[in-house]
């Protein structure tokens, strides 16, 4: 390995690249960030097209604890500087995208990150430093080339480019339609027109809501049932801020939701369209429907074209995202890691890895993994007495404050390792599936925040649905809402779980309902392990 090779080369100066750069900079590592554009945050200069973020910015929480406040601040990156909070950049609950651009520019400048701008990467290669028939066995440095022909060598590459390519469905004639990223956003351009929007996500409904006052007819089409974020708890499903079209549909105001496949799009000689739609609700009845405009709003995908064959990462989910391990590493290319929204295959359409308020903690976990693997820095831990009282107190204190477990529910876990001699180590924010087998003969405890099973199948506004009383600790495992779960993992045995009863204000500090049942659980489990 060349002595002059960087420890880390980060591709992309969006929020994930800047967040990782912050940790690398603080640790004193040899790193460089390459950014294709002339400044950070190029994505947010264009998207969302109608310039309103769906990531909340709640400034007035009633709390003084900065950690708890991050639960309601979905835009800030993690740092030690209280001035580098997004809440100082906007008062709006759903902020303007331009405020995100300003924030990320300031973050990069004020933290002194080493970013090379106008350095669009065109190739990532890994020439073999030893013969092997398997690319995964070639462990020489990565060689990264930008569009100006400049090359950079690095022991490890972290890709934080986001999803930069439109995810266009293979519909015959789709190339004649407008794309979300380039279609006009001026409602005046659609006056009196019939508009078909393909897709059922936030970009589709954001586009539809923008046209309600001017378009004659708006149809939003997609083959799958519409999923609402308030029901599934996945913030990428349709948000209330974008669902104005649903009212106009159900109140018979010319607009409609089409549940079915768009099989074909034909551009006619007069510039209008004829779309063939196969409806799912009526035994695949097919109908040709005329439109003046067709807009494709079907999301984005990761661009893997920059990778040479020697280090091309495997892809998943219809090749939209890189396949990653619990260490945010390519499953087939060692030392190639990913950060940010492109790690959402970890909890696709269930968690928050696709969003800043989730992946900022995934990036911190990635940095701790890199520090442990390559620099001998152990995962941060604190020691405590391995007794039921101190263990319960430590858990209750954490679940009442943590933003990381709150945002990355079920994905990140605090881990308590029973080391023996009455001592335990408390590690924070470990990827749950990174733990591997139980640690030591005594095993370990994993603490997560989780929704209940099948929570997305329950209508939270239906008063006929039976609910668990918040004082009923014996039935805590039946709860649908977010609540703490503590599991004891021991060698050769299935984990034993204890659920802490859900609470309306997410304050798990009742001695009778929350603390004492947890203390009793620790007493039972610690009594069962070898001395």
Per-chain topology:
Layout: E1 6-11, H1 15-27, E2 31-34, H2 66-69, H3 97-110, E3 115-116, E4 121-125, E5 142-146, E6 151-159, E7 165-166, E8 178-179, E9 194-198, H4 202-211, E10 217-222, H5 229-232, H6 244-250, E11 256-267, E12 273-279, E13 286-291, E14 293-296, E15 300-301, E16 315-316, E17 321-322, E18 336-338, H7 356-375, E19 381-385, H8 388-399, H9 404-407, E20 412-420, E21 423-431, E22 444-450, E23 483-490, E24 493-499, H10 511-527
Parallel strand pairs: 1-2, 1-6, 2-3, 6-18, 8-14, 9-10, 9-14, 10-11
Antiparallel strand pairs: 4-5, 5-6, 7-15, 11-12, 12-13, 16-17, 19-21, 20-21, 20-22, 22-23, 23-24
Helix pairs in contact: 1-7, 8-10
What this model shows, in words?
This protein has 531 residues and is an alpha/beta fold. The protein folds into three domains: 6-165 and 301-375, FAD/NAD(P)-binding domain; 174-298, FAD/NAD(P)-binding domain; 381-527, no CATH class. It contains ten helices and 24 strands. It has helices spanning 15-27, 66-69, 97-110, 202-211, 229-232, 244-250, 356-375, 388-399, 404-407, 511-527; strands spanning 6-11, 31-34, 115-116, 121-125, 142-146, 151-159, 165-166, 178-179, 194-198, 217-222, 256-267, 273-279, 286-291, 293-296, 300-301, 315-316, 321-322, 336-338, 381-385, 412-420, 423-431, 444-450, 483-490, 493-499. The strands form five sheets. Strands 1, 2, 3, 4, 5, 6 and 18 form a seven-stranded mixed β-sheet that branches. A hairpin with a 4-residue loop joins strand 16 and strand 17. Helix 1 packs parallel to helix 7 and helix 8 crosses helix 10.
């Amino acid at each position: 390995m060349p002595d002059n090779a960087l420890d880390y080369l980060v591709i992309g100066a969006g929020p994930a690249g800047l967040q990782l750069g912050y940790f690398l900079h603080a640790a004193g590592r040899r790193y460089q960030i390459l950014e294709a554009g002339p400044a950070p945050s190029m994505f947010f200069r264009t998207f969302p097209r109608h310039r309103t973020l769906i990531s909340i910015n709640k400034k007035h929480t009633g709390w003084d604890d900065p950690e708890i406040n991050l639960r309601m601040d979905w835009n800030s990156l993690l740092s030690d500087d209280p001035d580098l909070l997004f809440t100082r950049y906007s008062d709006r609950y759903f902020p303007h995208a331009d405020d995100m651009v300003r924030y990320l520019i300031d973050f990069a400048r004020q933290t002194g990150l080493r970013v090379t701008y106008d350095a669009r990467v065109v190739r990532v290669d890994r020439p073999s430093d030893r013969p092997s028939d398997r690319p995964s066995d070639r462990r020489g440095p990565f060689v990264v080339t930008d569009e100006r022909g400049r090359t950079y060598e690095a022991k490890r590459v972290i890709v934080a480019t986001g999803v930069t390519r439109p995810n266009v469905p293979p519909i015959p004639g789709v190339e004649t339609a407008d794309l979300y990223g380039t279609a006009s956003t001026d409602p005046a351009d659609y006056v009196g027109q019939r508009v078909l929007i393909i897709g059922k996500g936030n970009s589709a409904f954001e586009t539809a809501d923008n046209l309600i006052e001017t378009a004659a007819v708006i149809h939003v089409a997609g083959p799958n049932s519409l999923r609402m974020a308030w029901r599934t708890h996945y913030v990428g499903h349709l948000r209330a801020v974008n669902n104005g079209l649903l009212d106009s549909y159900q109140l018979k105001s010319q607009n409609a939701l089409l549940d079915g496949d768009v099989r074909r799009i034909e551009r006619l000689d007069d510039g209008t369209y004829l779309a063939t739609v196969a409806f799912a609700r009526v035994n695949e009845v097919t109908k040709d429907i005329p439109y003046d405009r067709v807009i494709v709003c079907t999301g984005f995908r990761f661009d893997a074209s920059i990778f040479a064959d020697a280090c091309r990462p495997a892809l998943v989910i219809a090749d939209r995202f890189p396949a990653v391990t619990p260490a945010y590493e390519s499953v087939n290319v060692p030392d190639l890691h990913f950060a940010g929204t492109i790690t959402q295959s970890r909890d696709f359409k269930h968690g928050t890895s696709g969003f800043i308020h989730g992946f900022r903690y995934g990036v911190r976990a990635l940095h701790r993994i890199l520090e442990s693997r390559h620099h001998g820095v152990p995962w941060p831990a604190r020691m405590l007495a391995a007794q039921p009282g101190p263990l319960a107190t430590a858990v209750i204190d954490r679940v009442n404050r943590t933003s990381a477990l709150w945002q990355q529910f079920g994905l990140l876990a605090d881990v308590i390792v029973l080391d023996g001699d009455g001592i335990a180590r408390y590690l924070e924010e470990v990827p749950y599936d990174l733990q591997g087998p139980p640690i030591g003969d005594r095993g370990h405890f994993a603490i997560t925040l989780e929704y209940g099973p099948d929570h997305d199948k329950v209508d939270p506004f239906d008063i006929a649905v039976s609910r668990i009383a918040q004082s009923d600790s014996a039935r805590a495992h039946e709860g649908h809402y977010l609540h703490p779960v503590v599991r004891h993992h021991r060698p050769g045995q299935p984990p034993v779980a204890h659920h802490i009863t859900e609470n309306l204000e997410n304050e798990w500090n009742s001695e009778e309902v929350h603390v004492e049942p947890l203390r009793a659980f620790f007493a039972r489990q610690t009594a069962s392990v070898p001395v």
